[in-house]
Amino acid sequence: MKKHASYVSFLVILTMFLSACVTINIYFPAAAAEKAADKIIEEVWQLEDEKNEGE
Amino acid sequence: MTNRLKHYVLLSLFIVFALVPLTGLAQANLEINTPAITSIKQSMQTRHSQLVEFYNSGAVGLTKDGMIAIRDANAVPLAKRQLVNTLVSAENQDRNALYREIARANNHPEWEPKIRSTFGQRWINMARPGWWYQKNGNAWAQK
Questions:
Q1: What is the pLDDT of residue A25?
Q2: Taking CB atoms and an 8 Å limit, are B30 and A10 in contact across chains?
């Protein structure tokens, strides 16, 4: 009976872990998107060049 | 037997805590270095040197959905009105393509609206003082 319980708990935790992985995969990486946006905007608007000219 | 149960629990917890940060790491950066994205970026960079005068004069403003729009046509000399229209529509085509390509490059085409709204905020955030942008109620405001 105890052996059975241990297998059940193992399966429960494993299932929680796998569902967490799926959640992470679906979740939109907002911080990464902001970082990517800033990088592209800096290039398109040439903000880096202006900063360098100002120095 | 309870020892065995403890073993399972500890092992599972170890797996969870060891691997969860790794899956997070894989998502830490968005892919933005594809040939399609680079070419759109270059086209927008070239166009920006022509558009900047209209951002400065307030003729063109940044919309909250990551696009640009003509805000005040009267701020544009007659001779340049056709040019502004062409620039704005070409820019918006590139911006649409950019958001679509970023979503596709990251294997999540359904992220496009979220990428668009992220860009919408960031363009406005990084706009130069004096440029116009659209607020939540669609009203225009100046940086």
A1: 59
A2: no
